[in-house]
Amino acid sequence: MGQEFNFNNELSGKIALVTGGTRGTGKAIADRLVKAGATVIITARNKPDTEGDHQHFIAADLSKTEGTQKVAKEIFSKFGGLDILINNMGGSETKAGGYSALSDDDWEQTLQTNLLAPVRLDREFLPQMTARKSGVIIHIASIQAKLPLYDSTLPYAAAKAGLLNYSKGVSKEVASKRVRVLTVSPGWIMTDSSSRMMERISESSKISIEEAKESVMQALGGIPMGRPAQPEEVAELVGFLVSPRAAYLTGTEFVIDGGTLPTI
């Protein structure tokens, strides 16, 4: 007999953590999980402008060990643990210029933010998931793990490639304990920060916003769909993957890039 699902309230009673959940894709994911009935905790260094009825904010810098420990302590104290962990926090602030322009500090900060922060959070919350034999972890990686942009984001690409490999390894370790671990690798997403970047490119290059978008898509080798993703589209994929509808999925990477990657 087939299993029936309630799509509108399928995460009722679940406790979820979304890192970097105050803006952009993280906020879209948090909102999507709330709509599915989950209680959502969001973390970032700065407090969001508004906090929803079913969202709880913890201020923390997860690029540091103390930040991870703070988040874990507060979650175990207030909620008893997690059912869903979305390791969404990430980004790159390294300068352009290729490998020779990057210092040890550039590499260290990028690896801490994009690889070691998820590793530390998994280490905090996986034991209670495996003991309970229930849980889902999503690592948000990037197509740059396979399509590195060497001029400006090489450490970011390397960190995401490491996250992809790490995620696969952990999934094998905990699958028998009914904890699912998956990776979502987006391409270019049109967040508010991306919109501001288009404005800067437009102003500095004396071109239109649309021409600025085209220049970025060309730098990526083109996007067959002809546009970047919307945060809500990535959030919808994550919402499916953490739901009971995806109960047999683990250890897999899901690419959502509008066809950007030129190979399979």
UniProtKB/TrEMBL annotation:
Keywords: Oxidoreductase. It comes from the Bacteria. The keyword Nucleus does not apply. Gene3D superfamilies: NAD(P)-binding Rossmann-like Domain. InterPro entries: NAD(P)-bd_dom_sf, Sc_DH/Rdtase_CS, SDR_fam. PROSITE patterns: ADH_SHORT. Belongs to the short-chain dehydrogenases/reductases (SDR) family. PANTHER family: 3-OXOACYL-[ACYL-CARRIER-PROTEIN] REDUCTASE (PTHR42760:SF133), SHORT-CHAIN DEHYDROGENASES/REDUCTASES FAMILY MEMBER (PTHR42760). This is Short-chain dehydrogenase. It comes from Marivirga lumbricoides.
